[in-house]
Amino acid sequence: MTAETTGRNGEAVSLEQMLEARDKRAARQQAALTRFALPVVSSGVVMPGPVKDNAQSRIAMAAAREALEALFAARDWPVRLFEPVRGPTGPESIHVIDADALEIKRALAKLEDTHPLGRLWDLDVICPERGIISRRSLGQPPRRCLLCEAEAHACARSRRHSLEELLTAIEKMTGAYSATGP
User: Fold this and answer.
1) How far is CA 45 from CA 37, 112, 121, 138, 149, in A?
2) Domains plus CATH for the chain?
């Protein structure tokens, strides 16, 4: 396995870059909410470490887009806007969906829990009236760690797993997905 395929190569990003990307994402979300007054689905990739844009994050985001488009089509939910963004802080996108925000969140949580790469996705739903719809507000458990059954936030806060372990798990997940396809 070469450094190019391990996901360890790429441009390391700074905290300032991550904060700037978060602010720009929030501005795009708010602009979409204002323009359409419909739920916004914000999609990103969980990529620990300083390198956010790499082969693995691109594979995960492409799979997320494919799964989201299939879900929206299957539910007959009109997509009013699709806006992808790619940069050193990792791939992301927003969709504006003409459907009930709670129904969207339920469906996205199921995707995150059942798709082979779903654990690598960060799929948020922002409702024009309620703001961000959380798993907890739907009575669903929090996301699980990539490596164990503990809550993801607890493992991340305690740094229970090394960056090397996490990146290796992500490489295996994306490699297996790429080898077998959707």
Assistant:
1) 25, 11, 5, 22, 20
2) 3-141 (3.30.70)
**Contact present, 45 and 121 (Cβ < 8 Å):** yes
Q: Can you give the chain as a three-state secondary structure string?
A: CCHHHHCCCCCCCCHHHHHHHHHHHHHHHHHHHHHHCCCEEEEEECCCCCCCCCHHHHHHHHHHHHHHHHHHHHCCCCEEEEEEECCCCCCEEEEEECCCHHHHHHHHHHHHHHCCCHHHEEEEEEECCCEEECCHHHCCCCCECCCCCCEHHHHHHHCCCCHHHHHHHHHHHHHHHHHHCC
Amino acid identity for residue 65 in this structure: R
Q: What is the pTM of this model?
A: 0.89
Per-residue pLDDT tens digits for 21-78: 999 999 999 999 999 999 999 999 999 999 999 999 999 999 999 999 999 999 999 9
- Greater pLDDT, 73 or 181: 73
Q: Are 154 and 141 in contact (CB under 8 A)?
A: no
